[in-house]
Amino acid sequence: MLVWVIVLVYVGSFSLFCASLVLMKKYQGNDVSSERILNSRIPWITRKSLFGYRITYFLFTVGVLIYDFYLNGETLLCFFTVWNYISQIIYFGLIVFYTQFYSNEKVLGKSLRVLIFNLNQLTICMVILVSTLTWSLLLPAALSNGDDKKLLNFTSYCEHAVNVFGVGLEFFMNGMTIELHGFTVIVAWATLYTLFCTTFQVAGGFSPYFFTDISDPFTPLWSILVTTLVSFFYFLVYRLSILKEKYFPFIISLGSLEEPLTKE
Fold it and tell me: What is the mean pLDDT of each run of 10 residues along the chain (264 residues)?
């Protein structure tokens, strides 16, 4: 049974990953303007204020991650929460960098804008997914096993609770939208983690979560459930993005990109 579980997980994950790469290749021409990255859609929130929030939250999340590594070591890299926390840090780091140097488009160009755009979609969806799984599935399981301290601690609160509000505020303020074709990025990211978990366990490692345990014959069913949740939350965020654009439409400010942030 174990062999079949591994085969199913590998074949399913690899197929989804390949399909995602094909779709990403098809839509790689999609772009997002510098205006939508740099400016808030909320009229009373200036670019400087948005930048201040982003760099503050970036430094906060870096600090939390460093502290978490100090407490728990490199095994943290096996957990999906940490994968997403790192991708989120990269998002905020890149957007802070872009805000400072966006005027040099010949160096930065379209590729960086597209990367920021896709990380924006990945970040908001994964934050909601991870937090929901943590409090609805992992916490009850931990309580039943007497391991509640693994989740009821400072770093967990920061990564699974504070983070929802932190990233949610960024999602609400920024000018970027969630596009349907961005779902391919989410699928590729999730399948990469599935392949990692399976390979890690085959090599003698542990299962980070009970629903990724390849020795459990019900793992493929758990994978279907998690995939369904990923789809649900992505389309939920997509609908929220439509509502955001409807009630807080992004207005391009003419001339707002003429000078760098430090000279405004």
Answer: 52 58 54 81 90 96 96 89 93 91 60 84 92 90 83 93 95 90 81 81 84 81 81 91 89 47 44
Supply the DSSP symbol for 258: S
Q: How far is CA 251 from CA 36, 44, 155, 169, 248, in A?
A: 9, 12, 38, 19, 9
DSSP 41: S
- Looking at the chain, the number of H-run helices and the number of E-run strands are 10, 0
Are the C-beta atoms of 9 and 220 separated by less than 8 Å? yes
Token reading at 204: 């003698």
Q: How far apart, in whole angstroms, are the C-alpha atoms of residue 77 and residue 39?
A: 33
As given in the structure block, the two tokens for residue 244 are 């955001």
Which amino acid, residue 89?
A: I
How many CB atoms lie under 10 A from the CB of residue 145? Answer: 10
Residue 123 phi, psi dihedral angles, 5° rounding:
-65, -50
Both tokens of 119, joined, read: 């990380």
